[in-house]
Amino acid sequence: MSKIEIGELLYECTLNPAGFTEYGTxxxxxxxxxxAMPPGGVRCDAYxxxxxxxxxxxxxxxxxxxxxxxxxxRMELDVHAKITTEDGQKISLxxxxxxxxxxxxxxxxLRENITLFSxxxxxxxxxxxxxxxxxxxxxxxxxxxxxxxxA
Length: 151
Fold this sequence. Notes:
Blueprint: E1 9-22, H1 27-31, E2 42-53, E3 59-69, E4 75-85, E5 90-101, E6 107-117, E7 131-138, E8 143-150
Antiparallel strand pairs: 1-2, 1-8, 2-3, 3-4, 4-5, 5-6, 6-7, 7-8
């Protein structure tokens, strides 16, 4: 693998919802204004999956976000996932970050701090990288679009 440049696009992904586990209050009902936000916020496990495509990395992403919605509407991300590359190798993905709702919109902005890890020889180049993800989530469809860059 050649040297990765700062700001270089590693991959893009479109992630689709693959299930939820809620802990007492429905995030959908809170976000739709049907139920009041509890004083401590709302928590859920949001499962997702979808393709990662790019010149540096291609494969399928599958994981879960241990999501917390704060009473002010800001969402705190705690993502754990794996990328299975086209050649069948596994890459561990850990991310934290925020999801910030846009005013009067069903679109929210995502900002993620990502760590990638693999012991497979062809993918160890990513172990020392600082990686950032920038994207959006459509709260109606729950589809996530993310671009992932070396930082």
